[in-house]
Amino acid sequence: MASNKKYWKSVEELDPSNSVVKTLKQNEFVEEIPVDEFLGDKENLEASSTSRRDFLKYVGFSTAAVTLAACEGPVKKAIPYVVQPEQIRPGVANYYATTIADGYDFASVLVKTREGRPIKIENNAEAKVNGSANARVNASVLSLYDSKRVQGPKSGGDYITWEDLDADVVAKLNAAKAGGKAIVLLTQTYASPSTTKLIADFAEKFGNVQHVQYDAISEDATLTAFEQKYGKRALPDYDFSKADLIVSFAADFLGDWHGGGFDSGYAKKRVPSNGKMSRHIQFEGNMSLSGANADKRVPVTPSQQKVALAKLYGYLSGSSVSGELPEHVDAAVKNAASQLRKAGRGAVVVTGIDDVDAQGLALAINEMLQSAAFDVKAPRLLRQGDVEGVNKLVSDMKSGRVGAIIMSGVNPAYTMPGAAEFTEALKSVSLSVTFSMKEDETAIATQYVAAAPHYLESWGDVEMKQGYYGLMQPTIRPLFDTRQFQDSLLKWIGSDKTYYDYIKDFWSTSLLGSGSWNKALHDGVFVASAPVAVAGIADNQQDDAEATEASTAVPAGNAAGMARKLAAAKADGLELVLYPKTGMGDGQQANNPWLQEFPDPITRVSWDNYLTVSKADAEALGFTNRHVANGGLNGSYAKVTVNGVTLDRVPVLIQPGQARGSVGLSFGYGKKEGVKTEMQTGVNAYALYAGFNAIQSVSVEKVAGEHEFACVQLHNTLMGRGDILKETSLEIFNTKNAKEWNVTPKVSLNHNEVEATSVDLWAEFDTSVGHHFNLSIDLNACTGCGACVIACHAENNVPVVGKSEVRRSRDMHWLRIDRYYSSEESFEGDNEVVESISGLGDSLTTFGEMEKASENPQVAFQPVMCQHCNHAPCETVCPVAATSHGRQGQNHMAYNRCVGTRYCANNCPYKVRRFNWFLYNNNDEFDFHMNDDIGKMVLNPDVVVRSRGVMEKCSMCIQMTQKTILDAKRDGRKVRKDEFQTACSAACSSGAMVFGDVNNEEDEVFALKKSDRMYHLLEHVGTKPNVFYHVKVRNTEEA
Amino acid sequence: MKEVIHRNSVSGILSISLAILLAFSTTLFGQEGDPDRGKQLFNSNCAACHKLDQKMTGPALAGVTDKRDREWLHKWIKNNVALRKSGDAEAIAIYEEFNGAVMNTFPQLSEQDIDDILAYTENPPASAAAAGGAGAGQVVAAEPSGVPNEVVLGALVLVFAMLAIMLILVNRTLMRIADAKGIVLPEEKAKRLPLWKAFVKNQFLVFVSVIVLLLVSAFFVYGYMMQVGVDQGYEPVQPIHFSHRIHAGDNEIDCKYCHSSARVSKTSGIPSLNVCMNCHKNIMEVAPETATAEHSKEFYDGEIKKLYAAVGWDAESQSYTGETKPVKWVRIHNLPDFAYFNHSQHVTVAGVACQQCHGPIEEMEVVRQFSPLTMGWCIDCHRTTNVKMEGNEYYEKIHEELSKKYGVEQLTAAQMGALECGKCHY
């Protein structure tokens, strides 16, 4: 059955009387050209001493001067190497495998370098664990070229030499040792075996050394629960490609839960094959990426989540668990329990509730289920933060027991809930050193800032998962006078080794066995053949069968006790859930303009964080969101108080799907130090992170004022066309003919209804010869993670325009991920409602009524870039033929030919063309990376940087397809299977985007184009795009 | 020579005659070696590391026989390694002086060969100087080979002047005769309308000439405008006078030896200085024949010195100092940023000769931009050039399909799609 449900992007759209929405539907460019601004000011014009004649003289003179100046070209210099490194050939990219481990993001990646400059991060297909780069990792290459980096060691605000720093530090360390005081190393999670050994060496030399690991966003509850059960501080690993049923209690596993990286496994099971796909049930408060992808999402507050989890345990174990739940939630839990029982080993329960009992109970449930997706044999090690240790450290510092503190990769003066207390305590420590890339809050409060290199300039090793190693290698010579933490430790213990030697020795003796160091370095990853002898669980459980035995070893009463405690959870008032945003994470890369401008997948807001509030709560508290005439979104401010700490002006965003009684606020914003003024956005949520617990009881009240969001939500409306996103349910997909659920639109021809694809205004292009590129996007596999958006930025030199320009709908993203909410919970109900509409008046009221569904909408993501139409509307209207059709299926855009009429953008039904309103490079008005020499190093030399006044858009990465063709020609061979890639398809770890040549039967895209689920966007327009989508199938089978 | 007791009278006679022969064949010192033959041997075996008058990888060899014992020299040249191993102090000293640079052993050289070489080091034949003199003579001799144009022109002017004078004289004579005979010449006609007024009155003529004038000026303005930004013939002065004439022309070095990136990359690559040093470690000066009327040998040698300064090479100690001054070449071919050009596509795949776009580089003393590098120029070539697809598996299928489509055997680049905007502009 066809789904013709109404999609909408914001609740405002459902209000038929909203004049702004109506206007926006008609206009691509929301704002008038502001002529009035300079001509309307009569007083000023008259007061000016410049007469009309003078003005004309100036114009004439400057025109003549410019013309003359343009006649002679500048003299350009070319400076070759004196000794050219063997591996570098100008114009040819080199790739190096390395690993990012910044304490929050861990991934094995490939780094593309040109002439020795890293310019792009790509996925490392060889990696078994976290081989895919998320949006932040993709953007991390720009953080290397951050002009705010500390350029050398500093003391008291002045640059000093490393020799001076070393002498001072060693003297003070010795003094601390002599004085019997503790020396504390406060570091990020390194998960680095060689660093662990090095710190042990350091402790041996200086005696009373404590190593405290600190995660800005703590996973302490899980670590503790896991330790209690299995005796090792680690996180359980999950393989969602083995899960047929996922029940998640607020675990945003498609986000950063447990270090992230689960999306590729998850997506594998989400694409229906042989009539089967996994089912995903999510109970959560905030609308998260995982919730948005779930088949069934139940909005519940954190305290209800705890009760629900306890009840689930009760239903599964057959014991009765008290606790109160709303009726529909209880029913959903019961239902989930019965499905879990049915799914058996294919089921998995995950939870993100920040509570030791909840985590412990989830572990117990998974053991009970004998879940195949659940792995405790080789747990994840990429979160090690120790809340207790950090708390103890602060009290030790205050009492003067700490003689020296050396910090690395952490910024407690910003990320600690009691940051002021920490900086105060820091004053009573006689030596404080911080290894930092920025002069951040902590660096200001410490005596010595040891300039730290970026991970692309460092050596390192990471054990992300027990037995799975990654190597970090420098891909560029250090840009500044920096030295990494490990090298400094070696220096201070008096070793003459470099950290590189140290790692190599350590790996050769302890890890590699018979493996080769060079191969490990080349691959970037290494899997230990035998489990490395780390005492603990590795030996306890040889296989799943034994896992069962282990589960019986856990006293049942223990789990029941946890359930009992959870069931007693109660909330008084609103509950606040603190969460990391997809773009910003823990806020380390706050000075990264790509990430600031990255629109959040759910809210589509960039350059901000905000309090997400449900519609009902917003009404009760008097919060409003409204669209203003220029297409921007405005929202109320709230005063948020947690535990006596108050944030005064937090912008409020009304979030459909937010559980009533809960509010959300993201970490990572409100950073002030070491961040450019434009990027000092949002409020610092860490202040509310009392006791390092993400769930807080909160009081919220409205305060005066209105916040201006940079939201790309109402931009580029779809002109009221409804067949953009096709959906069906698994049942219908399996039982009905494709014609019924993937309907080809009909148009009228000679007063007969015919299929839109059969009618054509133009003669067909011959697409049968040579390559013909197509991009396939599977809406089932797309999780909306946004890695492609940043990869596109990096590959195509897409400019950053800043908050106020985004607000004016002038964002330059070549690739956007549209997010649609739908109204009804079930397709049938939705269809019935829409089909029963008769007449305009009725439709207005009906759509108005459907607004209620915003309590819990269904969500779908749809990446949209230039569709590369074979019959492109833009091409026919360009007066200067700047955009033309390529034989290989690409719609070309010759920027130097464009005169900026913008007819093409007006005629594009997909609204994917972007106009350069300004010169975004070398312009102080846009003080982002393209305005300084360091930031410009990230530019891709194969793609031109566009100038003012031209239209730009997705080129289907023609520079990449051209390179692939040239490589094949040069080698005298055919293009290999699936060799063609675009930046987005290469970045897509979930396999949602597949690029290739449809004239090559071997390419994956060839089969995908033949699929039943294939459809084109706005088929009835007859544009015949070369980008196609796959109908989204939801697994709505209950029990 | 070793003293040998000659018992055989025939051999004795032979050796005496040989001695006499040698005595007469050598000029001054009556030595056993033949310097001419020695020169050949020196050039083929020794010149890579030695010069007569200058230190290179090894010491300067002029007068080496004065410094060292002959017997020792023979041993050293034959097998210096064995000599050093035997603990010879002199041998070890020289080995250390040249930073442990190991000299090749030459077991293939006979004693006579070595003597010839040593003879050459003592007394190099003065052929080079003679050749230089001959060259200079040739230049002088070339001068009077034709009557200079100026002379011809001068003669012509003189003839015309004489004719004019004669005409005036004749005219004057005739006038005088007419005067004498009393003939009255007719008066000039009545005043005509001035030409310009007649022109102005004829409106059609004015109209046509204005149109013509406008068209002509439009033609020139267009011509001027279209050459703005086209730097054909651009020949900037470079920081080092690098002569492609000498390298690519005289020495026939393959373009891609230095510009090796052209094979695999979009840029042809300006060679890094270490590539220069592959040869210039040994070539410290140009041959005298290389010099031209315009640039002397000293000039070229000075340019090589500039290279040494840039790369930080100390010719005295034959070692790198580590102080480098990268050369700031002036870029000649400047394609705008919005145009993508890939050398390897043209050089490796299409097999286009470098000269097709860059002109007769091997004849250019200083490189200039030979082609206009305009889009029209690119397009013209793409329209007319056939794609080289023989033996390239990539083209097999597409060639088959396209040649059927267009009904041709050979496809031009344009037919392959090389005129599409997006192929070069992205």
Automatic annotation (TrEMBL), chain A:
PROSITE patterns: 4FE4S_FER_2, TAT. It comes from the Bacteria. Gene3D superfamilies: 3.30.70.20, 3.40.50.740, Formate dehydrogenase/DMSO reductase. It holds the Pfam family Fer4_11. SUPFAM superfamilies: 4Fe-4S ferredoxins, Formate dehydrogenase/DMSO reductase, domains 1-3. Residues 773-803, 857-888, 889-918 form the 4Fe-4S ferredoxin-type domain. PANTHER family: GLUTAMATE SYNTHASE [NADPH] SMALL CHAIN, GLUTAMATE SYNTHASE [NADPH] SMALL CHAIN-RELATED. This is Quinol:cytochrome c oxidoreductase iron-sulfur protein. It comes from Sinomicrobium oceani.
From TrEMBL, chain B:
The chain crosses the membrane at residues 151-170, 204-225. It comes from the Bacteria. Pfam families: Cytochrom_C, Cytochrom_CIII. Keywords: Electron transport, Heme, Iron, Membrane, Metal-binding, Transmembrane, Transmembrane helix, Transport. One of its GO terms (molecular function) is metal ion binding. Residues 33-125 form the Cytochrome c domain. PROSITE patterns: CYTC. This is Cytochrome c553. It comes from Sinomicrobium oceani.
